[in-house]
Design a protein that fits this description.
The chain is an alpha+beta fold. It is 24% helix and 24% strand. The protein is globular, with a radius of gyration of 29 Å.
Amino acid sequence: MVATASGAHRPVGWIPILLCLVGCGAEDVEVGPRPDYSDLARDLTPVIEREMQNKSISAVSIALVDDQEVVWARGFGYADPVDSVSASAGTVYRVGSVSKLFTDIGIMQLVEAGQLDLDVPVTDYLSDFRPINPFGKPITLRQLMSHRSGLVREPPIGNYFDPSGPALQQTVQSLNGIDLVYEPETNTKYSNAAIATVGYVLEETQGEPFSQYLERTVLDPLGMVSSAFEPKPAVVAQLAKAYMWTYDGREFEAPTFQLGMAPAGSMYSSVEDLAGFMSVMFEGGRVEDGAILESETLEEMWTPQLGSGYGIGFAVSEMDGHRRVGHGGAIYGFATELGMLPDEKLGAVVVATKDVANSVVRRIADAALQGMVNVREGQDGLRFDFTEPVPADLAAQLPGKYGNEGDGVVIEEWDGRFFATMEQAGFRAEIRALDGKLMVDDVLAFGTAIEPLGDAVVVSGDTLAKRSDEEPAPVPARWRGLIGEYGWDHNTLYVLERGGSLYALIEWFFLYPLEELSRNEFAFPSWGLYEGERLVFGRDPSDRATHVVAASVRFDRRSVGPEDGATFRINPLRPVDELRGVAQAAEPPNEQGEFTQSELVEIVQLDPSIRLDIRYATTNNFMSAVFYREPRAFLQRQGAEALVRVHEKLKEQGFGLLIHDAYRPWFVTKMFWDATPADMKIFVADPSSGSRHNRGAAVDLTLYDLETGEPVVMTGGYDEFSHRSYARYPGGTGRQRWLRDLLREAMEDEGFSVYPFEWWHFDYQGWSRYRIHNETFDMLGQANE
């Protein structure tokens, strides 16, 4: 791809500095840096590279604009990590809500032409637009474009979750019969549904499909040759791969379906194209043969409207005394920040390929803008705060629960990293150190200060005392049928219990306490993405929810693992007897090196009160077959003795250990592997490298209640091949997660570490010192006699 196409329009005086050959691919496009910005580019480079490394971001592209010139633009990392395709200034990304700026520009062109009026009822243009509005104040384009219309955030059809790709008309018409959340002009309520409606006004009044109209009237005149509102083959060919992630440790390639509300978030673009757009803005809307908009119109778009923090389309704020306008964007796996200082004619756009990494791209963009101001003013230096891991002297005192349930902070440690669930903010983020202090520095957020004070923490100036970590009460019966997962694989809604309240974990990361309005109706809080909106559950005759309509979007209940404690089972890929014969005839891997002498001991001989439920000595297991002749459990002596200490400590809290499996002969591991479908192999060990069970240094276990003798209920069942088994699975009840964490913390205190994908599986420290074994239990018993 070359920088411009024949016939494309560019702003007056627009001068890119290209460092690629004619005919190069998008991965080769680079601009500058212009000499006076070379120091800034040099300083920003390690900032971007370090943020990518710390936040596991595969690609970032950036462009800086000084009036009519792109002074630096390049990519970092890989647009396609699988095929090692480098990112560049020409790489195409999905830019999410940055789309709204272009939709609104399309409207303002027609306002200038006298064809549309921002302040008449929108029903003048859409006669079939009939959301329920009991307030007597009609909805207008100005309200819609400044997020003051009171409409719901998402339309019922064609919303952010909906992969069906309905037509824009169907999306907007689905708002008919939906109540306004607020009276128009009384509250700022960010709404994708509103901008979908704005785009539909263009489509209906101009008699042309929205995406085609915007391309002809806005994108083409701007010379944005790599941009589109639909997946044109030439554009998508340069599209970067983007990635989703979850709190429980999953990562997967982002979906690429088209949103039914394309005007609000479906635009494709490159930082090269967006840099050209910013230059047009700085030129007062002028291009070579005319103007996109008049400068007076742009000024109106950059002026806060109706008491909101939005102009018309543009978010309006201040940065160190400079007026700042722009917009962020977030869509499946992509995060964008476009920021401009229009009075200084300076702009920056940054895009990344990790879901909701908006805090990261915003920090980079703002650092770049401030650095550009410094260049203009002859000042040196770029300020960007780099954090470090939490120092050891603070680590021990951090974990705990602080403040009141529901508005406090919960700090947890995972693999030497510390995470704070900010209950009032509605998210979980990593804590790191900066200049001897602690603060949030995460993909999701940056800057909240956390100061440990022994049995308290100070969070943003508020002192929160550590509260006791008591066993949570059972969940109320009326909520049991509501707790679960709803929606889609690509975007799952969790309904969970926490601290005696129901919560919704939505869009993977946003944790909101729910107010119970009636048996089946709950309200989102008065803050967050879905402020003022509701959840309404539908139940079956057994009182179990079949679906929930949350913020006007229907989420159907997902089937995740067996119900009511049933055993998870698979259909083996081959008959068990055939698998057994092949496995017993095979040889374990030939390991080289020096190994510690094994001393496998039978755990119950060290402490008979440790109970056994050896599933593989029965048919009550995931393969419905017997693998062991006897229900016995062996472990290397040091690990077994540590396990006894865990058991003794847990007795103080009323629990004991129940073992499902420990040492496992290698041939059984091979049977498991050969039987399991490829998409489930994360739950079984690869026999080519052996299992930690084969070395006698791993144990599968749970807790039992000393008073009742019954096993406790965790978030998922033993050997359940689902993400409910993950050690950080966020769903379920507070008691289930508390019991799971109680087990983990007790095991970790004695030198065990949990396997991230199985809450029940723990490896003892130094497991690699032992050889792989293939002896059966009776052979071990004879050796120990």
